[in-house]
Amino acid sequence: QVQLVESGGGLVQAGGSLRLSCAASGRTLSSYNMGWFRQAPGKEREIVAAIIRSVTSYSESVKGRFTMSRDYAKNAVFLQMNSLKPEDTAVYYCAATTGSWSSGYWGQGTQVTVSS
Length: 116
Hints:
Strand content: over 45%
Helix content: under 10%
């Protein structure tokens, strides 16, 4: 079992920055693909960034503004979010999987609110 706990969310003005953390316990994350997702009110959950077999990718909506990283020693992943926009407002989740995202482990989420 893998337990994931996100932190670092909050309220920020447009143009500001936040750094989300996702700490894992139970197992090392080294063999897992990792992802950051978000879900805004009334919208479906969408993937924001992922590290799959050491390759990092981003959705078009965040490319150039967000940076995902992982720290094997800390057994954690991070999402640095810069130049935040009101449309980035959502609950952000991290996930770990060795197969499909739906069959993986998920954190409880952290709220990010960007004011205009």
